[in-house]
Known about the structure:
With about 140 residues, the chain is an alpha+beta fold. The protein has helices spanning about 35, 40-50, 70-75, 105-115, 130-140, and strands at about 55-60, 80-85, 90-95, 120-125. The protein is built from five helices and four strands, in the order ααβαββαβα. The N and C termini lie far apart (about 90 Å).
Amino acid sequence: MPKLPDRVLPDQPDHRPLERFWPYAELPEQPTEEELAVLHPELKRALFGAPEQPFSISIEFPVFAGEACARAIELAKASDEYVTFDLDGQARHRARFFPGDRPLRLRELYELVTGVPDVRILIDDQPLPYARELWLPLVWFLIR
Length: 144
């Protein structure tokens, strides 16, 4: 068996690579608005600190069977902020409402998804105890 040389490359290169070749994608240094919109609220808070925004209630729900799902997604898209994302391979929808002047839309969406398993109610993007049992009925008092 012949002995392999220690150095595979020649001392002098055979050709010169083009200077315009750049194999890396040109990425911006700052994230775009679309990238920031889909960040999970906890990650956004850890990276950028707590944002200055009014009190909000978010309803986060998975895709479910039935015609109520299409209506729920339609109502979620009409919310103040709407995001879709994947969690453990499952598509989820998050609708944020600032309930001061529109609590009726929040209640209508909640009534559609209340029987769906794995629905989360977030108060200022935090899963608080009794959010479903205490906070939502308090908001219902704002309905005239």
